[in-house]
Design brief:
Layout (H helix, E strand, L loop, with lengths): L14 H9 L15 E5 L3 E2 L4 E8 L3 E9 L3 E11 L9 H4 L5 E6 L7 E10 L5 E10 L9 E5 L2 H7 L22 E3 L33 H9 L10 H14 L3 E5 L1 H6 L9 E7 L2 E3 H12 L3 E7 L3 E6 L4 E3 L5 H4 L25 H4 L2 E8 L12 E2 L18 E2 L8 E5 L2 E4 L2 E4 L10 E9 L17 H11 L4 H7 L1 E11 L2 E6 L4 H6 L3 H14 L4
Parallel strand pairs: 2-8, 9-11, 9-12, 12-14, 13-15, 14-25
Antiparallel strand pairs: 1-3, 3-6, 4-5, 4-7, 7-8, 10-16, 15-16, 17-20, 18-19, 21-22, 23-24, 24-25
Helix pairs in contact: 1-4, 10-11
The structure holds fe (ii) ion.
Fe (ii) ion (FE2) binds next to loops.
């Protein structure tokens, strides 16, 4: 293993700027680039089928722009280009993150019948006010046409999470400019706004969230990804979600290693669940935190009927609702019990709270075998910053590890750092050196735990002052209250120690494999041979190749 540096990377920020990079609320908004000018774009939908029309909504300080579209797979394939198109500056409502930008349609084109399913990156270029070029990026998905797809994998992009973290316009499900003091996160977010900077494309040296630092004793945590974002003008959340940081690495790996792979958004899962029927294997990757009830119904029914679901992802946390034909995502989160109308009438099982809230009664483990509140943070901040970087393996004889040469007690993917930054787990016990889910864990029947690492839901250190903590015990208190009714110290103690697992279980006529870590894709990005082999073992078995 290569030696890790024992200092944080530095991007030239002052201590005050470093603090602002982590604590501050900064975001993209129309007018942000002032004197140099701007061009922004969003689409009417996240995804289209071949033959359908893409409508782009564009606002630009320049009267002319050009557009360039590539399919982003094993190779970049140019599919469309046009110059000399006209645009104008369009007014944007203050609460555009919530309501949508409401810009007039600017440009339309038809998806060619020969455009294969995948992610398509749109680059818009124009001349800035100072004569320098200006650019922005957009991304849309071409989803597959219905029908039987033998031998093909369907990847479902974590678009609910992209939407939740999108900083464009000032509000997302984390921070925001809503409420009387313009300081609250948004409980509703619109698809009708551009993606924030770094969700579509990123330079190769953009830091990931987990630390690549051998942290010296008593070190105040630093957050290289947020410092880099602040220093380079990228979104504060570029490393938390998006095609560029997560989903793209799985898709490119699959094509690079010879798999036939299609891509859909979670909107297909919600509105057109029959899309799964054509496939023997469906995969979910990266940071995959926000799902609707209907999306889970789609996966549960698919597996029950004999489908195979492989999740290489972490943080199966929140129920959302989609409104306005999918243009608005609702998630009240921490404020759900106080504010979500689902608690006053309708149907409390659809409340936009943690899946593990007892009133919802549908823990994530019922679909994917693991729960978010039993997992959570590893490898950053004050949450196991010196913890395991790979999955500690307990059942090396399992078919998923065939051909890796891995042994009991080894770490899978430590070099490529696949374990973190949010993981999913289960309450478990060790008997005879092997992990088993406890009777009350919510594990489905027949679930086998293949690997388990530690994780933490709170930052706890006698050596680090509270004002230097970022993650604090807030999430832990919320989980304590959600699961046990009160955010007391005693309840916090029950939830603060988490874990991250790889599990496998049968369901109906089908099967589920779940490596519960956001960073699994880092192993594919960094071409870690063992991580690639495990991924292939899963895909090959589920495609009936082995
Ligand atoms: Fe998350």
């Amino acid at each position: 293993m290569t030696q890790l540096p024992n200092e944080f990377p530095d991007f030239g920020l002052t201590p005050e700027q470093r603090r602002e990079a982590v604590r501050g609320h900064y975001y993209e908004w129309p007018g942000i680039d002032g004197s140099s000018g701007e061009i922004w774009c969003y689409g009417d939908r996240f995804s289209y089928r071949p033959g359908e029309t893409v409508v782009l909504h564009i606002s630009s300080t320049a009267p002319r722009f050009s557009i360039h579209i590539v399919r982003d797979g094993r190779v970049e394939t140019k599919v469309f280009e046009k110059t000399g198109l006209s645009a104008r500056w369009q007014d944007t409502p203050d609460q555009c993150s919530v309501e949508g930008c409401g810009w007039e349609a600017s440009f339309e084109f038809r998806i060619g019948d020969d455009w294969s399913s995948g992610a398509y990156r749109v680059t818009l270029s124009a001349e800035g006010r100072d004569g320098q070029p200006i650019q922005s990026h957009h991304l849309f998905i071409v989803a597959p046409l219905p029908g039987r797809k033998p031998g093909r994998v369907l990847q479902v992009a974590a678009t609910g999470t992209w939407l939740a973290y999108n900083t464009w316009g000032g509000s997302n499900h984390y921070q925001g400019i809503t409420g009387p003091n313009r300081d609250q996160y948004a409980t509703m977010v619109s698809t009708q706004r551009p993606w924030c900077r770094g969700f579509v494309v990123l330079p190769k040296d953009a830091p990931r969230v987990p630390l690549e630092v051998a942290v010296p004793p008593k070190t105040v945590p630093r957050y290289p990804h947020m410092e880099w974002a602040f220093a380079t003008g990228h979104s504060k959340k570029y490393a938390s979600s998006g095609w560029a940081s997560y989903d793209s690495h799985f898709f490119r790996f699959a094509e690079r290693t010879g798999y036939q792979i299609d891509l859909a958004s979670q909107h297909e899962l919600h509105f057109s669940p029959e899309i799964l029927d054509g496939y023997d294997c469906v995969v979910f990757v990266g940071h995959d935190e926000y799902w609707t009830w209907e999306m889970r119904d789609a996966v549960d029914a698919y597996v029950e009927r004999g489908g195979h679901a492989a999740r290489f992802a972490g943080n199966f946390m929140w129920q959302t609702r989609l409104e306005d034909e999918g243009r608005r995502q609702v998630c009240y989160k921490y404020r759900a019990r106080a504010e979500d109308p689902a608690y006053r009438g309708d149907d409390v099982t659809r409340a936009t709270n943690s899946w593990e809230a007892p009133e919802i009664g549908r823990p994530g483990s019922a679909t994917f075998g693991l729960n978010a509140t039993r997992g959570v943070y590893a490898g950053w901040g004050g949450c196991a910053p010196r913890g395991v970087r790979g999955f500690p393996v307990y059942r090396p004889e399992h078919w998923a590890f065939a051909g890796t040469g891995i042994y009991y007690g080894d770490l899978l993917g430590a070099d490529s750092h696949v374990y973190g930054y949010e993981v999913d787990g289960l309450d478990f016990e060790i008997r005879g050196g092997l992990p088993y889910p406890t009777a009350t864990s919510g594990a489905p029947d027949g679930l086998q735990v293949l690997a388990v690492g530690m994780a933490s839901q709170v930052e706890e250190s006698a050596d680090i002052p509270i004002e230097d903590q970022f993650l604090t015990d807030e999430d832990g208190r919320f989980t304590a209250e959600t699961l046990f009714g009160e955010a007391s110290d005693a309840n916090l103690d029950k939830v603060k120690r988490g874990n991250g697992m790889i599990v496998n279980f049968p369901r109906g006529k089908g099967e589920v494999f779940h490596a519960g870590s956001c960073e699994w894709v880092a192993g594919l990005l960094r071409q870690d041979a063992m991580v690639e082999r495990v991924t292939k073992n899963v895909l090959d078995r589920y495609l009936g190749k082995s």
